[in-house]
Amino acid sequence: MRQFTPEVVLPARRGHEQAVLGLLRAYGPLNRGELSRRCGLSRTTLHDTLTGLLAAGAVVTATPDEAPRGRGRPAERLALNPAAGQALGIDFSRRAVYVAAVGVTYEIVGTAGEAHAPGLPWPDRVALAERLVRGLLGGGLWRRALKGVGVGVVGPLTGAWDGSRDGALSGVAALLGERFGGPVLLDNNTRLAALAESTLGAAAGDQDALYLRLSYGVGGGVVAGGVLHRGADGVSGEIGHVPVDPAGRSCECGGTGCLETVASIRAVLDAYRARGGRGDDLPALKAAVEARDPIALGLLSEVGGQIGRVLAALSNAIGPRVIVVGGELAELGAPLLEPVRKALDAGAVPISRHRLTLRRAALGGVAGALGGVALALGESPLLSRYPAPEPEPEPEPGPAASPADSRAGGPADSPVGRRGGRGGPSPRPAAGWGAAQARPRRPLTPLPSLPTLPVSRGRRAAS
Ligand SMILES: [Zn+2]
Q1: At what angle do helices 43-56 and 32-39 cross, to 10 degrees?
Q2: Looking at the DSSP assignment, which residues form a beta bridge with residue 108?
Q3: DSSP-derived secondary structure for 185-202
Q4: What pTM does this model have?
Q5: Which of 74, 339, 322 is nearest to 198 (CA)?
Q6: N or C, which end of the chain is more exposed by having fewer CB within 10 Å?
Q7: How many whole angstroms from its chain centre is CA 276?
Q8: Backbone phi, psi, residue 347, to 5°
Q9: Nearest to 219 by CA among 94, 103, 332
Q10: What pLDDT shows up at residue 135?
Q11: What digits encode the pLDDT tens for the residues 355-385?
Q12: Residue environment code for 100-123, b if the CB has 16+ CB neighbours within 10 A, otherwise e
């Protein structure tokens, strides 16, 4: 298997490449003259940049313009390579890696996933992601053509996008950047699954949605007013660490009796065996449920009740219209979800009781990776309140462009978009991902400091 070779690219050169790729992404095929006018790079710099991109396979020559006879050779047009992946999403779940890739027109090129043993070291998990991406794209991954890599990891992210304030994750972000080449953005993997379900899945189009994933961990995501909520310290969506049993088991977050200690796959299987059930894994439990095993059904009824009471409390606090339940346990279906619904109905405030919809997730295990793609593209209105990632290095402006004009990007901040077209091609609409309604993202403005109340720091959330 061919490996991606780490390479050193000078920041200025990378900025030039991103400027050119951004224009081709926004406007489709352009000839060299059009590119030169729009990106503001000097003739020599543009020539060198295009030579590099053509050699790397990120850019290809498109069918030349039709030209009348006798007018000489038509100008060669350049386009993004349609076979190259343009954005990647990777979900590093507890026991599996999932990947997703989209191409030039933001269509999904493919998704893949593979389970692994718990506790697999990070370099091995990154290598697995690399192998899965290679399997999806074959020779079609031109590293420097990537707009970005959106990466989901377990637990809240308290620091910057690249994990630089999150200890071990900074090494992971650096390793991913080295292996894949594009800018790397990190976020909580379950929140990314919520983003995907709200973009392409069970809650698409719903402005107020709550997502819960019941897997080896239990977590979720909140969409309020059409915006994905990240929360202070990136802690929003840690539904698995809501306490449900003060006398329950210790949780890895440091708490006691969290929802995760009763509603994760491991917790449910442990409880099933403790009650005399026979089954070491999820397929065995599914088989028992299908066989109407009273131990399994009784257990799921109790667990569903605990989940439903937590969802009712959250619903009363947040006011979602839709609650989406995903993860492997949700595949057990009605024996788990009906008790969830009953407890939800019993606990939700009367006004929302019969208007709240409970749905199964639609995207399966790859939801987190698809959310990573949406994060990398950065154009979903759901992300409009997310802090903007660190900008890519910018090329020096040429005489025809202001510094702001030289940035690579979508139609919203592209030079021609600002100048009203100047007779050239219009920015093309990007399909899906909410791009058509995209709003530019801005860093959140810090509020003046307010007096804070002392809060216990004894619990460390981790889902
Ligand atoms: Zn916990």
Answers
A1: 120
A2: 102
A3: EEEEHHHHHHHHHHHTST
A4: 0.74
A5: 322
A6: N
A7: 40
A8: -100, -15
A9: 94
A10: 87
A11: 899 999 999 999 999 999 999 988 788 998 8
A12: bbbbbebebbbbbbeeeeeebeee
CA of 267 to the centre of ligand 1 (A): 12
Whole-angstrom distance, CA of residue 221 vs CA of residue 192: 8
Q: How far is the CA of 240 from the centre of ligand 1 (A)?
A: 6
Q: Which amino acid is at 24?
A: L
CB contact at 8 A, 109 and 103: yes
Q: Residue 217 gets which letter from DSSP? A: S
How far apart are the CA of 400 and the centre of ligand 1, in A?
A: 57
Beta strands 184-188 and 148-153 are parallel
Distance between Cα 208 and ligand 1 center (Å): 25
Q: Tell me, in angstroms, the distance from the centre of ligand 1 to residue 261's CA.
A: 7
β-strand 87-92 against 148-153: which pairing, if any? Answer: parallel
Residue of 150 and 421 predicted with greater confidence:
150
Instruction: Find the 461 Cα to ligand 1 centroid distance in Å.
Output: 6
Assigned token pair, 160: 């910057």
In which order are the strands placed within the sheet that holds 209-214? 227-228, 218-224, 209-214, 322-326, 357-360
